[in-house]
């Protein structure tokens, strides 16, 4: 019997060692600095720019993840995976200069140089300078209040293991892929800054949970006629009656802020991309 107890003791010791390695390694990933310079952005003050910034904040899903008025919210919580809780925007932004806030949005790098996680900097990095200035102008109008969420991001054992293995990657994105002005080709632009936060252009994919399937963007959009695509973007209802899950939520909370002309331009661009991919 003695060898059984010794074996169990060894297994328990290995489990503790593994837990220590996962915690220490994931903590290093969370704290690791990223040398990305601050972003100098002109922030307008006029009411029209602020209103447009609020509209854009819907389209790029700031007001979906951080709640409609930026008060923050708990999106997901599981003892093993952790808690995803985008913070109140006003409270967070009050600690940042405009340049630091621009770097956070565009490059996914916090004030202390560490990376964000979950926030889609790979798509937000495409926001043009003038549109980023408008979004920051809207953010500066927000005020902390009693409605602000108190929930905080937290990573459980499985979440920390995913961090350590890179399955849940840091969102720090050093590359500068933005333009100074919103381009005339708004179809390509909005595909980059909004749709490709979740979708790949020509390939199927999955969300960060590794389970939720995400169809290739271009062929999926090409399968819709204009009226059906407009309905999808405004209501989250597809051509069938099935629940589209996250897409339905995002469409109602954010994509409904697109103008009719922007939706037409977006579909035209994605149909052209689908035709390229079919060759």
Automatic annotation (TrEMBL):
Provide the coiled-coil residue spans: none
Which InterPro entries does this chain map to? Answer: Cyt_c-like_dom, Cyt_c-like_dom_sf, Cytochrome_c550/c551-like
**Entry superkingdom:** Bacteria
Q: Which Pfam families match?
A: Cytochrom_C, Cytochrome_CBB3
Q: Does the keyword Heme apply?
A: yes
Q: Which GO terms describe its molecular function?
A: electron transfer activity; heme binding; metal ion binding
Q: Which stretches make up the Cytochrome c domain?
A: 48-143, 182-274
Which named protein is this?
Cytochrome c553
Q: Which organism is it from?
A: Sphingomonas kyeonggiensis
Its organism's taxonomic lineage begins at: Bacteria, Pseudomonadati, Pseudomonadota, Alphaproteobacteria, Sphingomonadales
